[in-house]
Design brief:
Chain B: One of its GO terms (cellular component) is plasma membrane. Chain B: This is Inner-membrane translocator. Chain B: Pfam families: BPD_transp_2 (PF02653). The structure holds 2 protein chains of 2 kinds. Chain A is mainly alpha-helical. Chain A has 13 helices and 2 strands. Chain A has a single domain, classed as ABC transporter involved in vitamin B12 uptake, BtuC (Orthogonal Bundle). Chain A is globular. Chain B is an all-alpha fold. Chain B has a single domain, classed as ABC transporter involved in vitamin B12 uptake, BtuC (Orthogonal Bundle). Chain B contains 13 helices and no strands. The termini of chain B are far apart. The chains are: A mainly alpha, B mainly alpha. At the A-B interface, strand 1, helix 6, helix 11 and helix 13 of A face helix 5, helix 11 and helix 13 of B.
Chain lengths: 349, 313
C-alpha cells in the first residue's frame, strides 16, 4: 500500500472531506458517550439542541464563536504562510490586558475615539507578542512552535502579576481581576436578551477582509507563496523576512483582538480564567476550515455550538462535559486525515 | 540561608533530582522521537495520559509497577496514533502533535470524571516510598540525596545510559539516527524508514508517559487537572538545549530542576519585593534563552519534520 498524489483535487472531495471527518469524529465519540452509560442518541440530541436548538442557545453559541472566529483567523493566516503560531492563547490575553489598560479609565478621549483606540491597542499588543518569536525565527532560526508555546505561559504569568499588582481592581474584594471597562469602551449588544455583541460583526468583517487580502492582493500572494514553497518564493524575489513579520503582526493582532472583544463585549473586565483555551481551539478551527478565512466562520460556530451544547448535555444526561474537547480534538485529527486523502489516493503495491 | 550552604545541602539536591525526574523521562522520549525525524508535540498530552493511567490503575487495585507499565502502554498507544498520522500518512507534525495533546489531555480528564463523577478532593493512593535508610544511604556524598529518591528516579537515570548506549552503540541506534538524518540513504540500505520511525515514536511516547506517571505515583499521590503544567513543552526546549544528546539531556534537566528548586526556596525565603510570578516565569524565559543560544550551533536531525515517501522528493 502506498500513497500517490492526485493530479487534481476533485471538487466533491473538498466538500465531502470535512463532512466525513465530522461524521467519523461523532462515531468515535459515541463510543465514549456509551462508555459513560448514557443513552447515545439522547446525548447527541441534547448536544445539538443545547448548542443550536433555541434562541438562547444560538445566542450563547454566537457569543462563544466570536473569539473563536478571531483566533481561528489568527491560526489560518499564520499557518497559510507556514508560520506555526501556537501562541494565540498568550496573544489573546495580552490583547485583553492592553484593552483593559486603555479602556478602563486612563485615556481622556472622546467617546467615539476610545473604542477604536482600545481595539487597535489590543491588536498591536497581540501582534508584538508574535513579532518576537517571528524575529527569532528569521534572525536566528529558532523554531517558533516552541517559543510561541512557551510564551503562552510567560504571558499568563505576566497577566497574573498585573492583576494581582498594579492593575488589580481595589473594588474586587481581593480577587485578581482588573478594573471594569468604561461604558464608552464597551462593545454594544446586538440583540436584546442575549449576549451577542458587536465583536461578532468585527470578527465576521475581518474574516471577509482576510479573505480579500489572501486572494486578491500582492501581500496575500506573497504569504501564500511563502507557505507553498519558501525556497521558490525567495528565489522568485519574495522578501521572505518581511513577509514573515507581516504575517506575525496580522496573526498576533487578530488573536489580540479576540481578547479585546471578550473584555469589551462580554466580560467587562479581565480575569485569569477568561479564555477556556480559545487560542488552542483556534488551531483546530483553522484546520477544520482548511485554512479558508470564510470557512473559519462556519467552523467556529460549529465548535462553539459543540462547547455550549456539551454543557447542556452534561447537565441533562450526566456525560462529563470534557467530551466537547475530545470531540473537537478527534474532529481535528479526522479532518487532517480526510484532507490528506483529498490530495492523495491509496494505491496497492 | 546563605546560597553556598544551600547549594551544599543534601536536601536541595534531593529536591533537584525529584523535580528533574519527569523532565528526564520526557526529554529522553522526545529525543528518541526527534532523532528518528519526528517532532512529537503530543508530549504534554501523553504525559497527562500517563499520569492518569498510572494513577487510575493503582487506584483500581493494581500494584505500583503495573501502574507504571500500563501508563507506558497508554503512552505507546498515543505514540502509535501520532506515528500513524505523521509517518505513513506524512501529515504536518506540528498540527497532529497539537491534536494528540488536545486529545490525550481531554480524554484523560473525561475518563477521570467518569471514574470519579462527583468528587472535589482527589482521592489519594499509596505512592512509591523513598529508599530511606539502607545500602544507598550509606554511600558517601550522594547517600543523603539518594535515600530520599524513589525507584522511578533510578529508572530515569538508567534510561539515560540505556538510550545513549542504544543510540551510539547498537545497529538499531544507527538506524534510528540514519532515518532522522537521511531517510533516503537508510532506505537504500534496506532499512524500513516507516518501521524504525514508528518504533522510535512509540518507545519515546512510552517514556513520556512514564514521566507523567512519576508525578502521580511518586511525586504526588493523586491526579490533578493541569498536573503536567507545561513540563512537556519544557522537555521539547530541553531537547534542543541538549543538542539531541542523552547525556546533555540529563544535564539540562538537572540544571532546570536546580533552577526550579532554587526559585521555590528563594520565594519561601521571605518578602523580597519580587512578585512570585517572576520566579515562575523564569524556567520558560530560560528555555527561550537556551533555544536562542543553542540554535546557533544546533545540529538538528536533518530530516526532522520532513515526511519520507518512497520515490517522492
Amino acid at each position: 500500500m502506498r500513497l500517490e498524489r492526485r493530479e487534481s483535487v476533485p471538487a466533491w472531495a473538498s466538500v465531502a472531506a470535512p463532512l466525513a471527518a465530522v461524521a467519523a469524529a461523532l462515531i468515535l465519540c459515541a463510543l465514549l458517550v456509551a462508555a459513560s452509560g448514557a443513552p447515545v442518541l439522547k446525548a447527541f440530541a441534547t448536544l445539538f439542541t443545547g448548542g443550536f436548538g433555541s434562541r438562547f442557545a444560538i445566542g450563547e453559541t454566537l457569543t462563544r464563536a466570536t473569539p473563536l472566529i478571531l483566533t481561528g483567523l489568527a491560526a489560518a493566516v499564520a499557518f497559510r504562510a507556514k508560520l506555526w503560531n501556537i501562541g494565540a492563547e498568550g496573544q489573546l490575553y495580552l490583547g485583553a490586558l492592553a484593552a483593559v489598560a486603555l479602556g478602563s479609565g486612563p485615556l481622556a478621549l472622546p467617546a467615539w475615539a476610545l473604542l477604536p483606540v482600545v481595539m487597535l491597542g489590543a491588536a498591536l499588543a497581540g501582534g508584538l507578542a508574535l513579532l518576537g518569536p517571528a524575529l527569532l525565527k528569521t534572525r536566528f532560526g529558532v523554531d517558533e512552535v516552541v517559543t510561541t508555546l512557551l510564551l503562552n505561559f510567560i504571558v499568563l504569568l505576566f497577566v497574573s502579576m498585573m492583576l494581582e499588582g498594579p492593575m488589580k481592581d481595589p473594588m474586587a474584594m481581593g480577587w485578581p481581576q482588573s478594573a471594569a471597562m468604561l461604558p464608552e469602551a464597551e462593545l454594544p449588544r446586538l440583540v436584546a436578551r442575549s449576549r451577542i455583541h458587536a465583536g461578532l460583526l468585527i470578527a465576521v468583517a475581518l474574516a471577509g477582509l482576510v479573505w480579500l487580502l489572501k486572494s486578491r492582493t500582492i501581500w496575500g500572494f506573497e504569504m501564500r507563496a511563502l507557505g507553498a514553497n519558501p525556497r521558490a518564493a525567495a528565489f522568485a524575489g519574495v522578501p521572505v523576512g518581511k513577509v514573515v513579520l507581516r504575517v506575525a503582526l496580522l496573526s498576533g493582532g487578530l488573536a489580540g483582538l479576540a481578547g479585546a472583544c471578550e473584555v469589551a463585549g462580554r466580560a467587562g473586565y479581565l480575569t485569569l480564567d477568561m479564555s477556556p483555551g480559545y487560542g488552542y481551539s483556534g488551531i483546530v478551527i483553522a484546520m477544520l476550515a482548511q485554512l479558508n478565512p470564510l470557512g473559519v466562520i462556519a467552523a467556529a460556530v460549529m465548535v462553539a455550538g459543540v462547547f455550549v451544547g456539551a454543557d447542556a448535555m452534561s447537565r441533562a444526561v450526566g456525560v462529563p462535559n470534557y467530551i466537547a474537547d475530545v470531540l473537537v480534538a478527534v474532529s481535528l485529527l479526522c479532518m487532517l486525515t480526510a484532507m490528506l486523502f483529498t490530495r492523495y489516493r491509496l494505491r496497492r503495491g | 540561608m546563605d546560597l553556598l550552604d544551600l547549594l551544599l545541602s543534601a536536601g536541595l539536591w534531593a529536591t533537584v533530582l525529584r523535580i528533574a525526574t519527569p523532565l528526564i523521562f520526557g526529554t529522553l522520549g522526545e529525543l528518541l522521537c526527534e532523532r528518528a525525524g519526528v517532532l512529537n508535540l503530543g508530549i504534554e498530552g501523553i504525559m497527562t495520559l500517563g499520569a492518569l493511567v498510572g494513577w487510575l490503575s493503582v487506584y483500581q487495585g493494581c500494584d505500583l509497577w503495573t501502574g507504571v507499565m500500563l501508563a507506558a502502554c497508554a503512552g505507546m498507544a498515543a505514540g502509535l496514533l501520532q506515528g500513524l498520522l505523521t509517518v505513513p500518512l506524512g501529515l504536518s507534525q506540528h498540527v497532529t502533535g497539537i491534536g494528540v495533546t488536545l486529545l490525550c489531555t481531554s480524554l484523560s480528564y473525561y475518563v477521570y470524571r467518569l471514574a470519579l463523577p462527583q468528587t472535589t478532593t482527589p482521592p489519594s493512593i499509596a505512592p512509591f516510598a523513598p529508599f530511606g535508610d539502607g545500602a544507598l544511604a550509606d554511600l558517601p556524598v550522594i547517600g543523603g540525596v539518594l535515600a530520599q529518591q524513589t525507584p522511578l528516579t533510578m529508572v530515569a537515570l538508567c534510561a539515560v545510559v540505556a538510550i545513549a548506549w542504544l543510540l551510539y552503540r547498537t545497529p538499531l541506534g544507527l538506524a534510528i539516527r540514519m532515518v532522522g538524518e537521511n531517510p533516503a540513504a537508510a532506505d537504500a540500505q534496506g532499512i524500513s524508514v516507516t518501521a524504525v520511525r514508528m518504533g522510535a515514536v512509540m518507545a519515546g511516547s512510552a517514556l513520556m508517559a512514564v514521566g507523567g506517571a512519576f508525578l502521580t505515583l511518586s511525586a504526588f499521590n493523586a491526579f490533578f487537572f493541569n498536573m503536567i503544567g507545561g513540563r512537556g513543552w519544557i522537555c521539547i526546549a530541553l531537547v534542543v538545549f541538549a543538542s539531541w544528546r542523552p547525556g546533555k539531556a540529563l544535564f539540562g534537566a538537572l540544571l532546570f530542576a536546580l533552577f526550579d528548586a532554587l526559585q521555590t526556596r528563594l520565594q519561601q525565603g521571605g518578602d523580597s519585593g519580587i512578585p512570585y510570578q517572576v520566579y515562575l516565569m523564569a524556567p520558560y524565559v530560560l528555555s527561550i534563552v537556551a533555544l536562542v543560544v543553542m540554535s546557533r550551533r544546533a545540529a538538528y536531525p536533518q530530516a526532522l519534520m520532513i515526511p519520507f515517501r518512497k520515490g517522492e522528493r
